[in-house]
Model the fold of this input.
Amino acid sequence: MISRRFADSHICGVKKCLCTKWNSGSSICFDSYLLGFGILKAKGSIPLVARMLHRTIHLFRKELRLHDNPVLLAALESSEALYPVYILDTAFLTSSMHIGALRWNFLLQSLEDLHKNLGKLGSCLLVIQGQYELVLRDHIQKWNITQVTLDAEMEPFYKEMEANIQRLGAELGFEVLSLVSHSLYNTQRILDLNGGSPPLTYKRFLHILSLLGDPEVPVRNLTAEDFQRCRAPDPGLAECYRVPLPVDLKISPESLSPWRGGETEGLQRLEQHLTDQGWVTSFTKPRTIPNSLLPSTTGLSPYFSMGCLSVRTFFYRLSNIYAQAKHHSLPPVSLQGQLLWREFFYTVASATPNFTQMAGNPICLQICWYKDAERLHKWKTVFEELLLDADYSINAGNWMWLSASAFFHQYTRIFCPVRFGKRTDPQGDYIRKYLPILKNFPSKYIYEPWTASEEEQKQAGCIIGQDYPFPMVNHKEASDHNLQLMKQVREEQHRTVQLTRGERCCSTNIPCAVAHRLSSGTWALGLGFGCFSRMLFHVGYEHHEQLFWLLLKCCPKFKNKSVTLFFLPSPLGASSCLLQKCFPKTGSSPPALTPQPQAGCVCLQGAEISEALPMPLVNHPYLHPYLSLLP
Ligand SMILES: Cc1cc2nc3c(=O)[nH]c(=O)nc-3n(C[C@H](O)[C@H](O)[C@H](O)COP(=O)(O)OP(=O)(O)OC[C@H]3O[C@@H](n4cnc5c(N)ncnc54)[C@H](O)[C@@H]3O)c2cc1C
Done:
């Protein structure tokens, strides 16, 4: 937590903050400013306390915002002149991230927005192009700079930049102040509490957070008064160092992205989402729709990744909404839970060597993937450069997760791009919108247009192999191959598997269920499975629904009965393995059910069972505490 001691005094009618102590990850403690305090005599011989004020370059790196920007606030409070600077070091940016046209546009829009917002407070943003060290050397001397302030980041390339700036400071005689505000906590504190290494499972991570307490509280908003106390850059400088246009950087200006960059847009979107408090409190992921035409999640990730929005602000706004609600979803599936996933990956990434690579990454399974340069190139073009929210920690963490190389261990779950699409969006509306070249194919071909006849392809105005590529792999062959490979790798690298696996909370994987006859004459069914902790967020509620329905179908007791289904919270779960084994055999889909919060459980109403197969229900002690929740 940031603790601050303010000693207020009135100097020439202006209320000044004299002492601000930060313990929030600053590389130079603010206490050093105390040394600069002295007693001055002002007009009329009234003794005044004053301090040496800095001439500061505030270097924006990722935190492209004015709200919750602790280091900018500290810069303003300790300076008599402040130069807000963004160094557009193209070589640095392109070598450290795969930044494509969409993201360039987003970045330039964010800088333009920052410039406008600084203008409203009486300052401006100076965008200086060039290699960052040369730019700093040049301007430190030109502007007599005594301090550089910057946001502390955890990526190796940003850490290296900060270390270089520190070295430059020692050489040229300026101070450096950096503070963490891109994550909820200073991740170093989490590492310290975990004995110096990162917690490698979400469960362990939450445990450490419970010892740490709440995340850092956002700092106050900046005002015109804050900026008035410091001299702003001359208007001539603003003209000389204006935000470039895409064309200046030879970037295509036309962007299909509906996400406009910048703090202003980010805050507007945040407010929009928060007005729907019911949506916020019932948010459960992965019970969201990945291929809906409009995002079924917040879509705020590009703003968080560039720091146009503060995660701390979002976290506390959510806390306020939760505090007013009767029920709300919880981590790992809630909105706050999503921010904690982000924090989890930030923490692990901050202390894991080669986090974005397989080679030399100690938590990642070493898998002998295909070595096919052409396919790799195609994959990179599609996935990396088009990302608007590309983020070092989250991206690599989720790819490890998705490929079952770390964190996620149900490697037998393989998504088929054709079957997944057919199941979740049978008409292919998503494909028709985002791949308009395929839009005239009949729905039965929309996910596998290469199976359409030549005549049908002509009619759809799209010849596969000419207007649209053939599939890169045969899905069945590739998934069979990968399955075997993973099985073998996991046996050989058992110790690496265990690192991010976490302990099981139940040794058995036997499905268990209880049935309860309700006073209304209907039945309540509670269902659980061993090892809840991983089930809920790996399998998700959608599978709970399916499993419930499957068991109902399987149990003669419920034939022709109306049944109330309860989703039971921890420590109960459901099994996707059972689903995979049994569900396809039933040859039909589960009924659509609408969740209704009730008595702390999610309750599903009204599944009418018309068919039943014999299957015994097993009582299980884990279910007993939840029986009291049944009406
Ligand atoms: C293979 C793969 C790669 C990914 N790469 C990125 C990436 O480069 N940058 C990125 O921001 N997200 C990435 N994600 C995570 C996730 O898909 C996005 O954060 C999320 O979809 C963004 O949408 P949202 O802002 O609407 O999220 P919401 O569901 O509204 O969540 C709010 C915020 O929580 C955080 N969050 C949500 N999901 C995750 C998650 N799975 N892991 C960590 N943090 C999460 C994000 O900051 C997000 O903006 C990746 C996921 C996968 C499967």
In short: Residues 101-120 form the longest helix (20 residues). The longest strand covers residues 79-88. Confidence is low (pLDDT under 50) at residues 1-50, 503-519, 528-544, 564-631. The chain is about 40% helix and 15% strand.
